[in-house]
Structures are given as C-alpha cells and as structure tokens.
## 1
Amino acid sequence: MIYFLVYLFIEIFVTYEFTQMVSPLGMFLEVLLSGFAGVFILRTLQFSLVDSMQRVARREISQEEFMSIGLFKLIGAFLLILPGVFSDILGILMQFDEFGAFVARQFLPKREKQDKNPFDKDDDIIDVEIIEEKK
C-alpha cells in the first residue's frame, strides 16, 4: 500500500511539472502518443519474445531472465497506455532488454551453473559396456 501511495505522489508531481513546462495541449498530445506507442508494443510483443527465445537458445540469457524480460515488456506497454508522465518513463525503461535483465538479476535467486555431464565429478560410477553374444 505504501508503494502505491509513493508511486501516486511521484506520478502526480511529475505530471504536474511536465504540464507546466509544455502546456495542457502538450500533455494531451503526450498522453495520446504514449497510448498509441503502448498499443503498438502490445501488438508487436510476439516478435520481441521470439528474439528473446533465440537469445535463450544461444545461452545469452537465462530462462528466468527471458520470462522477466517478457513480463517487463508487457507491464511497460500497459504503463505507456496509462496517462501520466512517470508511468510513461517507467514504461519506456521496461522496453529495454538490458533493464529487464538487470532487474531480473537483482531480484531473482542466483542459480549455480549446471555441468554439461553430471557424472564427470562422480568417481564411484563404473562405466560398463554389455556385449551379448549370439549362439
């Protein structure tokens, strides 16, 4: 609840200052442009997700980062649709993969890298080959 109140205060303050700088007409145009940008991003989100899946396949990002990047782009698009300058700033930041990956690394638990062959370190395993003879 406290985070929402802080967000609301910052949103109103930034929007008020921006409106004083650019006039009410400028604010109206900003709301329209950011709304159209948010809808456009929602409609093209699938292409961004395909690119992120390819980055996972090349092991450039982890699966957790992939999920958070997609989620951040979706939330960012909705923030762009909402009227307000601070929400637009957050929505634009969330469209960058690097920002989403950075936040994901900060909040998601770190996973140890798995070995390619889990049996490499186990000395108790005996490798045996069974050959059957036909009579």
Note: The chain is about 70% helix and 0% strand.
## 2
Amino acid sequence: MEIPAIEVLDIHKTYGKGESAVEAVRGISLTIYKGELFGFLGPNGAGKTTSLRIMVGLLEQSRGDVQILGMTPKDRHTRKELKSKIGIIPQDISIYEDLTVEENMWFMANAYKLSKDFAERRINELIKKIGLEEKRKSLARTLSGGQQRRLNLIMGIIHDPVVILCDEPTPGLDPQSRVAVWKFVLNLVKKEGKTVVLTTHFMEEADRLTDRVAIIDHGKVLVLDTPDKLKASIGEGDLVEIQINDNDKLEAAKEALSNFKGVQEVNITTNLLTVRCLDVIARMAALLNVIEDLGVEIEHLGIRNTTLEDVFINLTGRTLRD
C-alpha cells in the first residue's frame, strides 16, 4: 500500500495556558493522498492556516500525530529531507522588490543550495510556465500585483518539491491572472504528479480545482468529500435568491416559503432569502405570489446551482467570508 502524502491523526494545537488558552485546532484527522489537490475551506479564524502549518512541519502540534511522506516532521533526522520535499507558497507576497524576477529566483535557489545547472534549468522553466519571460530582467517592485503574485508562487517551488502548500494563492487578482494561477496549479498536480494542499476563500476556486475538500470551523473538520458529493449532500433542486424591501419580514417570508410545495429548505443570509426548490421554473410564479402576499416588494431575484458556500451555510448558518 502506497504511503500517503500527508496523514494526521487527532491533532490539537493550543496557544497560551490556563484561562487565556485558545485551542485553535481541536482534533483533526485526515489523509491526503499523493497526486491529490486537496482543499481547505473555512472562515477566518477557523484553524485552516494553523492546521496546514502543522501538516507541513512548520509548526508543532500540542498533541496528535503527523506523517509527511511517511516521515515525522519533528524528528531532527528527517527534518532536512522533508525541507527539500515541501514547498510553501505563502498568502502574503514574499518577494525582494529591489531584485529582478530572475534574481529573486536565484536568491531562492541559493537558499535551497541547488546546483547551478539545476537551478538555471528550473528558473528558465518556471519563468516561462508562469508567463513572466518578458519581465525576467524587471525589478520586482515594477511588476503588477498579479505578476508579483505569480512570482511569489514560483519562488516557493524552485526546489521542485513533492508536496506543495498554497495558502490563499489568488487574493486581489484580476480574473485573467487568477485563471493563469489556476492553470499553473492544476498542471502541478495533473502533469507533474505533485500533491497540492490549497486554502482559499473563493468557492469557485475550490470547486474547479480540488479533488477533495475539507470544510473546517472552530478547529474541527465539519465535512470532507469531493465538491460534487458535498453539494449533492444538501439536497436536490435549484436555489432561488430573493431580496425583499423589508428586512423585518424576512422571518415571515421564510416561514411562508417553507410551507410551499416543492420547497426543500429556506435560509436567511444577511438580507437574502435562499430557497431550495424542486421544479423551480414551473413553480416560480406561485413562489413570488407567496412573497407578494406578505405586502413586500422583491428587489432582487436570481436562480443558481448549489455551491460549496451553500454547503457551509447549511452546516453553520453563516457565510464562509464571515
């Protein structure tokens, strides 16, 4: 049986002591397989980054076990070997602004003590793949935000790691740059056989890229499965989003819609009613009549498919971006 890329068993992480202690991770267990693109979703403060730092050996857990490629990260005999096999792409852009693109890459190559021949091949390969060839002699501070983000990405994998952690790789990017990063990350897995662990707040990103995804909150895994199975788990039917002009009547509208034929569930998110309904097109006129009978006006109406954020709302009653 092949050794998993990452295996964690009942890991906990507590900061502080006594009454001021904060338990950031509360018993996470999971297995991430080689060649898998694994996603972590959760609101800020859910324990995503802490969990991942433990999984790749950057942080030691308070208790529980971690194995990376069959090795224990806290074992000093394997720490050096693991360092060469793990790549970290941080959320914050960590580049040297007064160095060129090429010099930034050489700096990282020297930090990993790569041979000159290997480093040169790797730098040329990565700069081309990420679309920065025309900027290789440009100072990093002259790059656009998207170009800096792409440079940040390839600096983290200069040493050709086996396991790669991407912590929020696309915040603030325009759509074109985001798609370029998506394509690059997918190729790492599908064409090069890398294992990538991805944290993100973007539901479309997780849905399009990941093989499996874990949704975590308050330091615990709530669910873990493929995106399609997670979306299917919360019911059939399409989603109707309805915004009315009187927030005081949201609860009354929810109750009225909950009793309507074909409606599977109704949730309120901020000032929006989200209604899951079977055969929604045929029932739309009658649904709207239910709202109008309450003496309110509809300000927004939309129909969409289930998303991973709907899964999270179904589990916790709040949005992933809280």
Note: The domain at 235-305 is CATH 3.30.70.100 (Alpha-Beta Plaits).
## 3
Amino acid sequence: MSQESLFDFLTSTRLPIVSSLSTLIGWLSLGLAIASATYGASCAVLAEGLWTGDLPWSGALPSLAAAPGFLIAWRHWRGNRLQPAAIWLFIALFTLSVLANLPRGAFNAAWYLHPVLALLASVCLGVIPGLVLTLVAVTAMLIGAVVHPGEQVPAAALPELWVHVTSLTAVVLASALAGAIVNRLLYMALLAAEAQRRKNLESSRALRHREKLLRHALRVETIGDLAGMVCHQLRNTFQVLLGHVTLGEMADDAERARRLALIEETLEHSRPLLDELMTMAHPDEGATESCDLGEQLRHFGAQAQRVLPAAIQLRVEIEGDRLPVLLNPRGLVHALWNLVINARHAIAGDGSITLRCGTVRGVAWLEVVDSGCGMPPEVQARIFDPYFTTKPPGQGTGLGLTAVARYVRGSSGEIQVQSEPGRGTTFRLSFPLREPADRVRSA
C-alpha cells in the first residue's frame, strides 16, 4: 500500500472508529461550507472591503475562498472517498487560516493555529499530502512577513520580525514532521494488527476444521459401537422373520396373510434402528435451537431401548412438564449415545441404565445412571482428559467423554460424574433453562 492510503486501509478493516471518523469529516465539511459561504456573503454585502484586517476572519475573501474546498470535501465524503475528502477539508482549512491571517501581520496570534493544522494534516493525510500543505502554508506565512499587508513594521523591528517568523516556521515544520512520524507509526501498528488478525482468523478456521474432523471421527467411532448392538438386534429380527417365512410356506392362505402381517410389523419395528444409524452417520452437525430436554430424552430412550440387549433394562424418568433449553439436539443425541455405550460396556451380564431429567433452581439437569462396575477416584479425575481410556489398545480413542464434556460446556452447561467401584456410575449434565419451567412432578 502507498503511504497516502491510510484512510483506505482503515476503511478496508471496517473498524467502528472508521465510521465515526467518516461521519465527523462529512458533517464538519458540510457545516464549515455553509458557515463560510453564509459569513462570506454577509461580509460582502454588509461590510466595506472584501479583505481587511479590521473585519472578523479578515473579511469575506477567506471564507468565500475556503467554502468551495469544504463543499468539495463533502461531495467526496458522499461518494465514500474518505482520503480525498480529508485532503480537501485540510486544503480549505489552510486556505481559510492563511487568508484570514495575512492582513493582520506576522505577529498575529492566529498563526499559531498552523502547527496544530500541520500536525493533524500529516497524521491524517500521510507524509506527502501533509508536508505539501504545510509547505504551502509556511510559504504564505513568509510572504506575509515580507509584504505584511495592513501592517507597517518599523525597520528596527525587522530582525525581531524575522526571528519570530523563522521560529514559527520551524515549529510548523517540526509539527508536520512529528505528524508524519506518528502517521508512519500508526500505519505500521495498524498493518501489524491487521496481519495478526488475519493470522488469528486463519488459525481459528483451521482449528474449527480440525475440530469438525475430530467430531466426525468420534461419531464414526460411536457408530461402530452402536452398529455392533444394532447388528445383534437385527440378527434376532432375521431369525423371527425366517421363522415366519418357514411357517407361512406350510400354512393355508389365511395363515400366510397373518404371517405376512407379522413380518411387516417386525420390519417396521426394526426400521428405527437403521434410521438411527443413518442419522448418526450424517455429517451435518445441526444448529442450536430451543427444545424440550424431556422430550429429547424420551425420544432417545425409545431408540436406545431397541438397541440395548434384553439383559439390560432401560428406564426413562422425566420430572416436570417442560424443560426448555437452548442447545444442538443432534449433539445431545451423540453425547447420550457416548454415555449409554460406555454404560453398556461397564455392565457385565444383567444390569440397568436409567435416563432421567428434571429441574432445580433455574437449571435443567439430565442424568445417565448405570449399575456397572464403577470407577476408582484416580480414574474419575482423568476421564475427561483427551486420549485417556481404560479400554484395551485398539478399542478406544479416549476422546468420547472429552467430546461430551466439550459439547456440554459449549452449550453453557456443566458435566459432573459420581462413581464408586462396584456401585455404578452417574453422569449429570446441567443446562440453563431458557424460561422458568413448570413445577416439578413425577413422570
């Protein structure tokens, strides 16, 4: 980028301060254009002389000369050209200041406004435009010191005049150089900040992409465990279907019709198992939405009941009429499958898994309780650590519970675990309610 494109650079970053700065330039230009034109026209009509030190702002000429510059700056601002608008605004300000001070002589105190204008011009416009405007203003001031219209300076005072003019010139030039340095430092700082912002944005995108791939890998792992249980149930279903087909071949037409109806009923009963696998395998993560935690748990329990072996009893207990929460339903289902599959692995032989939810003090809670082998305290302390697993090598990644904990915390919730060896495990998930729930009741 060129050194004059600081405003373009700021505009490209779309920072809030740029909007405020643009508004200031636009309305300041319009206000000064109207004020200058009004004052200049009034002086031209009512006062004697267009340019004299006896009049405020030295008459009509400075205001009338500066008004077009202010108007051009406002037109550039209307066209979203911030850099040209700022340049014309400072041209008009320098024009107004120089023409207003020339009739009043070199010792006029208003000349000390120029160091401020030079500093602001160099900071805002850049090195070249700021220095050019400053040199023009300094040249006009030096010409005024020689010509000094409207003021008679004795010959004895000429050395003092030149010392004053030289000192003021040096101050103006020093202010312009200081502004140029500030402009460069500001530009480099903004450029470094923008580069860091872009780098952070790319890193954030890469991190989100890796997390998406990790979640998909975890889903695939969960699907593998779930598919094993589904296959076991489907094997039993196929045995039932084969029995109906065999008996139907040896029966009369009425019995065959009844057997076909039973086959259809069995297939309809097995379809949700395959639908659940397809839903879990879908790459779409879903969106956050308001949902009823009790209804979600009831639906999940109906699906899990079909998958779990008959030796494991599944109970669903829901307290409360409505438990409105804000979360991703598909993420909740994935988290629950992780917990239920872990509970299934922890149960050797017969056992039970209880899913229950309720509310307490503005918080909706959900528990997954199993009657499995439990965990010692040292294992409980590490179960949410990435890659920690108690399964044999090749049978677990140690990321399932990590993903569950991340999902819960990403939904503004909390996850807790209580377990004792030989006495089962309880996972408790808590989410903030979106609105006060109804009074708790037993489902």
Note: Residues 436-443 have pLDDT under 50 and may be disordered.
